[in-house]
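User: I'll paste a sequence; please echo it back and then give the predicted structure.

Assistant: Echoing your sequence first, then the prediction.
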Amino acid sequence: IDPATKTRREEYNWVLQNLGPGISMLDAAAGYVPTWHELPRMLSMRGFRVVAIDFDKRALDMPPISKVLRMLGDITQLPFADKSFDIVCCISVLEHLAPIDIAKAAVELVRVARKQVMITADNGWWLPEVFGCEDHVKNVPLEPALNPPVYFLEIEL
């Protein structure tokens, strides 16, 4: 198994184990590689209606999945009303953005969530500070066995 696939499996398992109640989910920057980016499929199998948004047009070519709507969009300017989704996920994306865009994305991800925001980032020790939630973080485990180490952040709203 290549390292990226192993990392995604660990991150997706964390999401699935820590999901709160809800039926609608946004997978922000969902990706476009069928062997890596399986979270929308996994969530739909659990009964969630998923919007999988990504900036890259290749994401629209992912295999069709029942209960998953794929669309183009920028996580720094999400095209949704406030509190549109019960749960918002953003898996291993923020560490690839410029600092100003990380801050914009953080605001947007929280804005469109009703109940829960779940984020992972490689070497993401900075996640609680960016999200301004040092006192409200439920879970920031570090998975040092992964290379690079992955940080997990869950915010309950």
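The longest strand covers residues 113-122. The beta strands are 24-28, 49-54, 68-72, 85-91, 113-122, 137-139, 142-143, 150-156.
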